[in-house]
Specification:
Elements lengths: L10 H10 L3 E5 L2 E5 L6 E4 L4 E3 L3 E3 L6 E2 L2 E5 L4 E5 L5 H5 L1 H6 L7 E5 L5 E8 L2 E8 L3 E4 L4 E4 H4 L10
Parallel strand pairs: 3-7, 8-9
Antiparallel strand pairs: 1-2, 1-4, 3-4, 5-8, 6-7, 9-10, 10-11, 12-13
């Protein structure tokens, strides 16, 4: 019987691999995984030992980066993830749990790939609150003075409900 052995990588090893990689890599608790989508500027979620590539990172005010990684944003205000068949469970589960540990973070938007629907996960005085905005509705994040039409967000996008 063969057993798989997990290798624990340091953050410096991750940065070295990322520099050489033609794909984005995500780092969490010493494990490195290849990721799809997003941009080179990523959020360093030091509070939870996760480095990831949100599809969109918004910072209110001046952007701060990690001393060990000049591309790692450490003070995101709003993060946006576009879910896919392969990432939806992770985006709504473990990754979201890590995101909620970021002190500067006000909200996370998870955009569905199956239907015209945006999940809003927003920090409030009572903790984290979650709600859905569907076709014909508007995503509102009052603390950020943000209002976004779900219909406009999905304009020109053909969804595959079977995905």
């Amino acid at each position: 019987m063969t057993t798989a052995r997990r290798v624990h990588h340091s953050y410096r090893e991750y940065l070295e691999l990322l520099e050489l990689s033609s794909v984005k890599l995500e780092y969490c608790d010493g494990e490195i995984d290849a990721m799809a989508g997003g941009t080179p500027t990523h959020a360093d979620l030091g509070a939870s030992d996760l480095t990831t590539f949100p599809d969109v990172t918004v910072v209110y005010g001046e952007r701060s980066t990690a001393s060990i990684d000049r591309n790692a944003v450490v003070n995101p205000t709003l993060l946006v993830e576009v879910a896919s068949s392969s990432t939806e469970g992770y985006d709504r589960g473990e990754k979201l749990s890590h995101y909620k540990q970021i002190a500067s973070l006000v909200a996370v938007l998870i955009i569905s790939h199956r239907r015209r629907q945006v999940t809003v996960v927003e920090r409030s005085s009572h903790g984290w609150q979650q709600r859905e905005a569907r076709a014909g509705e508007t995503v509102v994040i009052e603390s950020l003075s943000l209002s976004l039409s779900v219909d406009e967000l999905y304009a020109g996008v053909e969804l595959d409900p079977s995905a």
